[in-house]
Amino acid sequence: MKLIVAFSIFLFVSISCDKVNGQKVFEFSKMMDDAGSSLTSGELEETIKLNKEAIKLRSPCYVCAYNLACAYSLKNDLTNAFHWLSVAIDWDLASIEHLNTDPDLDNLRSDPRYNSLLQKIEKRNVLLSTGLEQSRQLIVMIDCKIDGSTVGSGAGIIFGQDNNYVYVVTANHVVGRRREQKPLSKVCFRMKPDAWYDADLTSHVDDTLDIAVLRVAKNNISVGEILFKQLGNASLLSRGDSVFHIGYPEGRKWRTNVTPDRFSEQDGGRSLFFESRSVKPGNSGGGLFNKYWELIGMIRSVGDPEGEAIEMSHIINRLKQWKYPIDLQYTLLANTKISYMGIHEGSIELYTMNIDGTKPTRLTNLKDRNGMNLSAYQTIWSPNGKAIAFTYFNVDNSEIYTLNSDGSKLRNVTNHKADDYFPGWSPDGKKIVFQSSRNKLDSSIYRKDEILITNNEGSPAINLTKYSGDDGAPSFSPDGKRIVFESRRDSLTDIYVMNIDGTNILNLTKNSKRNNGLPIWSPDGSMIAYESDDDLIIANSDGSHPIKLVEANQPMGMRWSPDGKKIALAAEGTQYMEYYVLEINGPSLIKLTEGAVANHFPPSWSPDGTKLVFMMATEDENEGIYVINGDGSGLKRLTKGQAEGFAPVWSPYLK
């Protein structure tokens, strides 16, 4: 048996693994030395033991996980070998060449799982390469001279522009505002890497944040191709997460680290600390990025083995106070969440998670007066994303609750012995319209005002439809002036609109002679989509010019895309419930799921309209929450068994 230890990887243990101080550093180093010796000598059980103990000291550490994969491969324990190889890749092992040449993995290469893991690395490397170049476009190199001699160098971050200037924020100590003689600053842009441009130092400086602002005349440079939607959310970082820096160390333009640095901690205020032995003085003023190449900070201070960055949100707030134009925007990942229903101890509870599936968080834990668990359904985010409304069902009735998106300030909005359900927010977030059975046998539409008052002393719920027959599925128009709903006032169900005070009720489908229901407004309020028997119909908001878009077998709900050009829906397929995307002006129909079991909740759009989230189950996996691109590509499972998630809803932008 030929044994080869990846010594080149061991050289980077101190760089790639999370920081541990004092005695633990010595323990870890000795443990890794012993583990390497054990693997070389073929003592596989000892190798496994030592690497697992090392992971307890430093996690994540892809070196430890990789060595475990090698040891299990040599034992021909393929299940554990693939498990630890997958963990190593999740912890940022990125060298396909090393995997393909290491004899310790010979037992794995003929297994289909091996190629699948290589493809995972390839896709991530392509993503990182693309993200790296986009991130480099944001960073400028800075050179400061006095009387022709360089007195400082570093980097800066392009944050905005107007008709005359491009604006760059950098570390104050880089451009030398503390010196008696102001240096001449020049900057170099990624799109013209061989040219240097004069930069004016503005009067704005913040010594606490250590930031200053440069401006460059736009007569010779254009930043129109830069992707400004690159801001990340530093609060999503966890200890040990990968971070990258881009700067101008040792005169090397747009230098970044190949081996990830590791996030250490946030001091509770503005600073982000990270473990690094590659960040150097020329990185000051440059960008700190997370593993998705989202900009999270500006490098402030450097030093082996730790760097410090100022969180971008603090910098952006200061620049806004100085009245600069801000073009930087938060990305979808940094700026949205997904809510969903999950099973917890026999009840259905409300959860949220990041849009990559991380940090699932249970928000609710309600019981009725008998101590019985309740069930939450019909989740809807407030327009500003700060609150969530939902229906809670118990053995006696159903109530509408709201709570803040972090789970705080739970409120019973309706607090009535009747059944209240199907909530809908007004555009200003101050009212909720809902369906209620307070009118004896029939259900009616009610409106509750000022529902976010902490003590819940808002005005009483107002009955807007005092008619015989069942009224339901209400929602506010985008301008907040009208309400659309369905009503069964004779033998058929029709679509109605009314003013928000219940006046001027208009039947939009009185001539259709069909059952019509589940109406939804288009984002601009000019149209309404609804189900008509098994057809999907769109019409003007006054009911005129109804158009059949598609015949859908038992449609079970739909949602407009944010731009109003598409509709996502759930409908019965050949064997199972399926999800579809329908283009309004095509119309062309894209099937999102094939041979999978969907549920009756329609897919939910991301606020930029590029992705959808939904629940489904396949023959190989239990039900879970998935995200997919709007064109049907890029299917990815988000949940891995946690809370048996279903009915996901994407939040609006949160910042």
Topology:
Elements: H1 7-10, H2 13-16, H3 23-41, H4 44-57, H5 62-74, H6 78-90, H7 96-101, H8 112-138, E1 139-146, E2 149-161, E3 165-171, H9 172-175, E4 184-189, E5 192-206, E6 211-217, E7 242-247, E8 255-256, E9 261-266, E10 271-275, E11 287-290, E12 295-301, E13 306-311, H10 312-321, H11 332-335, E14 337-344, E15 347-354, E16 361-362, E17 375-381, E18 387-393, E19 398-404, E20 411-412, E21 420-425, E22 431-436, E23 444-449, E24 462-463, E25 470-476, E26 482-488, E27 493-499, E28 506-507, E29 516-521, E30 527-532, E31 535-540, E32 547-551, E33 558-560, E34 566-572, E35 577-583, E36 589-591, E37 597-598, E38 604-605, E39 611-617, E40 624-629, E41 636-637, E42 646-650
DSSP strand tally: 42
Q: Any idea of the CATH class of the domain at 137-331?
A: Mainly Beta
Number of helices: 11
Examine the coordinates and then state which fold CATH places here, giving the name of the CATH topology of the domain at 137-331. Answer: Thrombin, subunit H
The main pleated sheet reads as: 6 strands, antiparallel, barrel
| CATH architecture label of the domain at 137-331 | Beta Barrel
Name the shape in a single word.
globular
| Fraction of residues in β-strands | 35-45%
The CA-CA distance between the termini, in Å, is 58 Å
State the strand order across the main sheet. 1-2-3-6-5-4
Low-confidence stretches: 1-23, 451-457
Summary of the model, kept short:
This protein has 655 residues and is α+β, with helices and mostly antiparallel strands.
